Amino acid sequence: ASLSVRPDIVVGYSLGEYAALHVAGIISASEAIFLVGKSAKILQARCQVGSHKMLAVRASVKQIEQITFKIVCINRPKEIVFSGPVAEISALVPILKANGYKCYTLDVAFAFHSAQTDPMLDKF
């Protein structure tokens, strides 16, 4: 708004939803920050650190469609993210690497968009 730019549409995913709500004029910046903080507190109080992992893979969805694993994010056409229990993600890494895919575990305390965060849901 300060640059006199008003988008026709805004889209947000995950934490980006709060930014989209703010840009769309639905919530204020302070409300967005409050909601992010509230969400973080619920996450820390209800979810177990270290039970799940996130794994970024340099591949398109089409390239790895034979892998029956939950894709939680498509960052770019050839970069996807898996999320799941530590043992399952750890078992997936050598399979992907053996098939020539570069992959790396994300250094996050919680595997967002996985069952690890389900205990938060009843608070929303």
From TrEMBL:
Domain Malonyl-CoA:ACP transacylase (MAT): residue ranges: 1-124
UniProt superkingdom: Eukaryota
Keyword Transferase: yes
Protein source organism: Lepidopterella palustris CBS 459.81
Entry keywords, A to Z: Phosphopantetheine, Phosphoprotein, Transferase
Keyword Transmembrane helix: no
Membrane spanning stretches: none
Signal peptide location: none
Pfam family, one: Acyl_transf_1
Designated name of the protein: Acyl transferase
A Gene Ontology BP annotation from the UniProt entry: secondary metabolite biosynthetic process
